[in-house]
C-alpha cells in the first residue's frame, strides 16, 4: 500500500466542513489518509459526535484557532491541513500559518471556496483578507508548504431560489419575480456543496501524493453549473410550471452603492452579474473529476427538482 497521511480539517462541523470530513472518512480516502483529525472548539457538540460515528479513522480533536498552544497541538504530525473555518480575524489566521510552518505541514487548503481573486477587477476590501492570508502562507511556507486555493463561485444550494437568503439575492418566489444585477442572461458559476466537498478531497489527495503533486496549481477553479438568472427562471418554469418575471438592476448603479458600502450580499450579486464569476472555459474540473468519471456534477435542474419534490417550490 502507498504511504498514508494524516489530514486535519478545521471548521469540520460547518455545512461544507461536515461534507468534506465525511468524504475523507469514506473510500477511497481510507487508502490515502490513515488519520482524519476533526478539529473543533467543542468536542462534545452533537455535530462533532455525529462525525465521530462516521468512521474509526476520524479523531475528534480540541482546536481553538485563537489559542497558539491548541493550534500547535492539533497540527503536530499533520501532512495536510484543510481550513473550512468561517470568519476568523487576521491575527488568528496569522497564527495558523505560523503553526503550519512550525509543524512542517506539507499541503494547506485555505478557507476560500468562493470567488477567484484574479478575476476581480474592482477594489474589494472584504475579499482582500482571504487573498492576503494565502500570500503570507506561500511566502512563509517557502515552497515547503504547498498552498492550494479552491474557488467555486457560489454554493448552488445557498445561492438560488429555495435558499434561505434567496430573496436577498433577487429570487422573489412570492411575487414570481427574479431580479438580477446586470442583464439576466449573464452566466455565473454555481457548484453543489457535495461536489465542492468531493473536489476539495481530490485536491488534497492529488496535492499530497508526490506522483501527482506537481499537477495541482496554486489556484484551482471548479465549475459546476454555469447559468444565468434567465436560465434559472426557465428551469423553474419547466419543473414547477410557474411563470417567472425577470427584472434587472443597472450594473453601474449597483456597483456605485457596493463600493460605498461593501457587503457580502452586494458582492454576491455584483460579481456574477458583472460576468466575473464564470469559470466555464477556465477551470480544473478535469483535474479533480476527469470526464465526470468520479461523480456527476449537480445541475440547477437537479436542485430545482429536489425542491419541487419536497414541496418547497
Ligand atoms: N461561495 C459561497 O457561496 C460560500 C457559501 C458559504 C460559505 N463559503 C465559504 O466557505 C467557508 C466556510 O464557511 P461556513 O459558512 O461553512 O463556515 P461556518 O459555518 O461559519 O464555520 C465553520 C466552522 O468553523 C468554526 N468556527 C466558526 N467561527 C469560528 C470562530 N470565530 N473561531 C473559531 N472557529 C470558528 C465552527 O466550528 P466549531 O464550532 O466546531 O469550532 C464552525 O462550525 C468560508 O470560507 C466561507 O466564506 C462560501
Automatic annotation (TrEMBL):
<keyword id="KW-0521">NADP</keyword>
<feature type="domain" description="NmrA-like">
    <location>
        <begin position="6"/>
        <end position="258"/>
    </location>
</feature>
<dbReference type="GO" id="GO:0016491">
    <property type="term" value="F:oxidoreductase activity"/>
</dbReference>
<dbReference type="Pfam" id="PF05368">
    <property type="entry name" value="NmrA"/>
</dbReference>
<protein>
    <submittedName>
        <fullName>NAD(P)-binding protein</fullName>
    </submittedName>
</protein>
<dbReference type="InterPro" id="IPR036291">
    <property type="entry name" value="NAD(P)-bd_dom_sf"/>
</dbReference>
<dbReference type="InterPro" id="IPR051609">
    <property type="entry name" value="NmrA/Isoflavone_reductase-like"/>
</dbReference>
<keyword id="KW-0560">Oxidoreductase</keyword>
<dbReference type="InterPro" id="IPR008030">
    <property type="entry name" value="NmrA-like"/>
</dbReference>
Amino acid at each position: 500500500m502507498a504511504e498514508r497521511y494524516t489530514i486535519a480539517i478545521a471548521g469540520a462541523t460547518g455545512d461544507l466542513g461536515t461534507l468534506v470530513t465525511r468524504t475523507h472518512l469514506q473510500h477511497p480516502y481510507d487508502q490515502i489518509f490513515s488519520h482524519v483529525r476533526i478539529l473543533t472548539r467543542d468536542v462534545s457538540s452533537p455535530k462533532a459526535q455525529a462525525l465521530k460515528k462516521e468512521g474509526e479513522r476520524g479523531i475528534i480533536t480540541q482546536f481553538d484557532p485563537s489559542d497558539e498552544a491548541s493550534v500547535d497541538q492539533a497540527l503536530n504530525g499533520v501532512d495536510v491541513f484543510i481550513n473550512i473555518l468561517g470568519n476568523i480575524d487576521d491575527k488568528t489566521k496569522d497564527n495558523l500559518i505560523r503553526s503550519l510552518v512550525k509543524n512542517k505541514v506539507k499541503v494547506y487548503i485555505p478557507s476560500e471556496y468562493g470567488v477567484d481573486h484574479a478575476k476581480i477587477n474592482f477594489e474589494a476590501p472584504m475579499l482582500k483578507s482571504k487573498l492576503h492570508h494565502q500570500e503570507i502562507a506561500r511566502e512563509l511556507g517557502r515552497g515547503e508548504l504547498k498552498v492550494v486555493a479552491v474557488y467555486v463561485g457560489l454554493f448552488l444550494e445557498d445561492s438560488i431560489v429555495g435558499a434561505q437568503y434567496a430573496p436577498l439575492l433577487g429570487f422573489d418566489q412570492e411575487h414570481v419575480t427574479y431580479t438580477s444585477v446586470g442583464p439576466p442572461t449573464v452566466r455565473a458559476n454555481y457548484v453543489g456543496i457535495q461536489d465542492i466537498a468531493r473536489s476539495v478531497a481530490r485536491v488534497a489527495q492529488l496535492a499530497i501524493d508526490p506522483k501527482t503533486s506537481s499537477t495541482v496549481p496554486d489556484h484551482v477553479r471548479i465549475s459546476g453549473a454555469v447559468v444565468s438568472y434567465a436560465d434559472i427562471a426557465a428551469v423553474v418554469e419547466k419543473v414547477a410550471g410557474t411563470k417567472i418575471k425577470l427584472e434587472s438592476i443597472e450594473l453601474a448603479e449597483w456597483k456605485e452603492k457596493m463600493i460605498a458600502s461593501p457587503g457580502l450580499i452586494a458582492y454576491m450579486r455584483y460579481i456574477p452579474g458583472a460576468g466575473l464569476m464564470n469559470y466555464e472555459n477556465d477551470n480544473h474540473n478535469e483535474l479533480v473529476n476527469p470526464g465526470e468519471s468520479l461523480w456527476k456534477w449537480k445541475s440547477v435542474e437537479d436542485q430545482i427538482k429536489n425542491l419541487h419534490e419536497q414541496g418547497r417550490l
